[in-house]
UniProtKB/TrEMBL annotation:
The keyword Isomerase applies. This is 2-hydroxychromene-2-carboxylate isomerase. GO terms for molecular function: isomerase activity. It comes from Limibacillus halophilus. Keywords: Isomerase.
């Protein structure tokens, strides 16, 4: 792994720890976490305002 990639990985890992991310995928919208692929509908609803 190149140094820039290692630095980005370390940065992303630190940010995930700060936000208490415990798995993947985790998305944040307006500081609200949406964890897991099965929550993507809820995320889409939050973004668009249209029910799933």
């Amino acid at each position: 792994m190149t140094a820039p990639i290692q630095e980005e990985l370390a940065s992303n890992t630190s940010l995930a720890a700060e936000k208490a991310v415990f798995g993947s995928p985790t998305y944040f919208y307006k500081n609200e976490p949406y964890f897991g692929q099965d929550r993507s509908g809820f995320l889409r609803e939050a973004i668009t305002g249209q029910p799933i």
